[in-house]
Amino acid sequence: MKVDEMWKVSTGKGIKVAVVDTGVDPETSSLKGQVLVDEVPKAVGYKATEDYLGHGTSMAEIIAGTGAGGGLKGLAPGAEIVPYRIALKGLKSEAEKKKAPLAASVIRAVADSDVKIINMSFGIDVDDPVMEAAIKYAQSKGKLMIAATGNDAQQRNFIGYPAAYPYVVGVAAADKTGKVGKFSEHGNYVDLAAPGLDIPTWCDATFRSYCDGVGTSMATAITSASAALIWSAHPKWTANQVLASLIDTAGRDWAKDNPSTYLGYGLIRPRKVLENADFNPGAPNADPLARENATGVTDATGSAPSASASASSQPSKGTSGGDATSAAGSSSNSSDDNTQLYVILGAVLVAAIAGGAFALARKRRTD
């Protein structure tokens, strides 16, 4: 990705990203001054700065961490985070689950704010009409919504929401060679792909050390950061234009009009947008996901989602190294002996996980 070159053009300054997750700890060394706590509406702000798993904080650092104090340096260190906490797998307290705001309520609150990007590194296998209505409302307000496709492909490959909703960018996870992760969910709701294996994330909510994170959650955060870089460089662009630029420049070896069910339109390459000051993002109102939105969502077998009861407040389902889609799949390397290794990796996060391997996706559509 050549981040040093990108940061000469943009660091994401002026762009606010809502992290709808397990909460975000604003006191980690990498996030001090990066989290806009006062901008969270009280109605949906229950314990937004108390991360019960470490997952939301990890996503925030991948997006906008400064790298201070040996912490993670995110892809868009000039961006700012607005934190939200919802009930996902890992929240043990039944009392807190009841108090946590519904994801749909949070999305509506973000839609009414000046946040540009909504990062949703979580997913469930239930189609909730209340959540879908909130998504459509946020789209009408010009928000760019990016969500994890899910991590359960090796077990049952369910259709993951909110990634599968119209106007939401579904992100798959790929390794350093550009090959889709075996766990990464697939279907026609996969729109883009980004690094999602061996990404440094907090091991747990003690915030003592980093572990190897594995999942579409991390890929989603990197995609949100990429969008922040582009939008900061082109503040007059619409969400459609930012997304169109990511799709147009994505690395792929298949036809753009025939997206992969594994990697969508390809692997993100924000540098290809930033290095061209005259990049044409297309019409401001043209929907880059019109194909998907018109045909409806199916999984890799062509099956349509089945009707289900509303479950917007239920924990996320699916696995990532044993954890939920919303939970960072970590290795067991959680001892302090490994801290320095991940601090070093974190300081050069994007350079370490991206390099030149994402110049062109080598994964064939049918593999």
Ordered list of secondary-structure elements with their pairings:
Blueprint (H helix, E strand, L loop, with lengths): L2 H7 L6 E6 L33 H10 L15 E6 L8 H6 L3 H9 L5 E4 L8 H12 L3 E5 L19 E7 L17 E4 L3 E4 L7 E5 L1 H18 L5 H11 L21 H4 L15 H6 L33 E2 L8 H9 L1 H5 L14
Parallel strand pairs: 1-2, 1-3, 3-4, 4-5, 5-6
Antiparallel strand pairs: 7-8, 8-9
Helix pairs in contact: 2-6, 4-5, 6-7
Explain this structure to me?
This protein has a single domain, classed as Rossmann fold, CATH 3.40.50. It is built from eleven helices and nine strands. The chain has helices at residues 3-9, 55-64, 94-99, 103-111, 129-140, 216-233, 239-249, 271-274, 290-295, 339-347, 349-353; strands spanning 16-21, 80-85, 117-120, 144-148, 168-174, 192-195, 199-202, 210-214, 329-330. A six-stranded parallel β-sheet has the order 2-1-3-4-5-6, sandwiched between helices. The chain has a three-stranded antiparallel β-sheet with strand order 7-8-9, with helices on both faces. Strand 3 (117-120), helix 5 and strand 4 form a beta-alpha-beta unit. Helix 2 (55-64) runs parallel beside helix 6 and helix 4 packs parallel to helix 5 (129-140). It is globular and about 50 Å long. The two termini are 25 Å apart.
Summarize it:
This protein is an alpha/beta fold and 367 residues long. 26% of the residues lie in helices and 12% in strands. The protein has eleven helices and nine strands.
